[in-house]
Amino acid sequence: MAGSGIFAEIIGGDVFNYYSDGQWNKSSSGKFVPIINPTSRKIHFKVQACTQEEVNKAIESAKVAQKLWAKTPLWKRAELLHKAAAILKEHKAPIAECLVKEIAKPAKDAVTEVVRSGDLVSYCAEEGVRFLGEGKFLVSDSFPGNERTKYCLTSKIPLGVVLAIPPFNYPVNLAVSKIAPALISGNSIVLKPPTQGAVAALHMVHCFHLAGFPKGLISCVTGKGSEIGDFLTMHPSVNCISFTGGDTGIAISKKSAMIPLQMELGGKDACIVLEDADLDLVAANIVKGGFSYSGQRCTAVKVALVMKSVADTLVKKINDKVAKLTVGPPEDDCDITPVITESSANFIEGLVMDAKKKGATFCQEYRREGNLIWPLLLDNVRPDMRIAWEEPFGPVLPVIRINSVEEGILHCNASNFGLQGCVFTKDINKAILISNAMETGTVQINSAPARGPDHFPFQGLKDSGIGSQGITNSINMMTKVKTTVINLPTPSYTMG
């Protein structure tokens, strides 16, 4: 059970503590932030509401700890990360249980998230040793007009304090995807977890605590974004921000100082289906891509752009698969579970009702109980409907019938998002040409969009983000280049 066994010290009474300076603390505010279980819609957990002063202390201790950590040998940093990864995987069950209760993630997917997170930490340790262990050597006579009198050595050094802000849908995996690259690079980390998902994140941080990282190096502060959000993101001692989420990221990028930003924001991932596509493969990927974790993924299929000649056949195949999806509580491992909050469910319903009013074809009856929305395929969606452009973050998928590939590409590129997209065709030449034309960070050919494997580059264009993720890219972003130039005396050509 959450907070029991090795995790007993992370909770005081019925409120989970925050983590700072190597220990678990109660906030002096005397306040807590409630975490609502999306299934029961009742308070399930409580976390500390940290004050600005407590956040300030966490950042200042991170600043001090980072100076020593930067001098810690690379192999030693890697050793501690491997240890944390093993502890994380060993305790996957209680952490997964938190994910089920806090974010209504189906039980099997919750376990997968924790295991994947452990694998990411281990891979990051190994990749960091390889990547950071290599420098570069340049000689001056490779540039016109120079003699061979200067040797230039470059290496990568840490930025300092990294602020990590993950989203509710992957509060463990998208936290470690920021924490591990920061730590292997010699940075310290301040984690601000999402409210829904904070308890799972605190359990994960405890695994790093048990691995024996130096105190102050890792902090996890909880609280209301309205009280500590701007204080964190605008703090003068924060040297880098890695954020995954929605519109808040745009506000952060406008307010933050002149520091590196890694932002993964929303998406309206388009799936373009050509006439020669394998429709069984398409249907399987659209259902998996559109409805897994109830569509609450940045890389979910958000709009299917289907050539008219195959649309009837494909819609029938998708409907047959949607009919087999199980709907209910995450504890029962259902395919479709409640969406994260009532306001999310209301937003999704607004998009559905707008589509109904404007004449979309409902392939299923719209059904909702509390935060639970049954999977819904909307056919004959037109560009004047909100669902054609807005991101539902729920189990609702619009189908737009297109007359040409160009029409599909135009719709995809007219979006202010550009995270991922996919194209289904048996013609590899067409696939590559369409991929080149789609204004998105990644295009999947004959597969639904996906973030992983976690060492692949992952980035968005336009309003979908800044910078690139993936383990190597994150390490690169969380370091800067340090150059040392050795000046040699002017050569005497009589020598030797």
Notes on the structure:
This protein is of the alpha/beta class and 496 residues long. The strands form nine sheets. It has a seven-stranded mixed beta sheet, sandwiched between helices. It has a six-stranded mixed beta sheet with strand order 11-10-9-12-13-26, sandwiched between helices. A hairpin with a 2-residue loop joins strand 1 (11-12) and strand 2 (15-16). Helix 2 (74-90) runs antiparallel to helix 4, helix 2 (74-90) packs across helix 6 and helix 3 (92-103) runs antiparallel to helix 6 (198-211). The radius of gyration is 25 Å and the shape is globular. The termini are far apart. The model has no long low-confidence stretch (mean pLDDT 97). Residues 24-483 form the Aldehyde dehydrogenase domain. InterPro entries: Ald_DH/histidinol_DH, Ald_DH_C, Ald_DH_CS_CYS, Ald_DH_CS_GLU, Ald_DH_N, Aldehyde_DH_dom, ALDH-related_metabolic_enz. This is NADP-dependent glyceraldehyde-3-phosphate dehydrogenase. The active site is at residue 264.
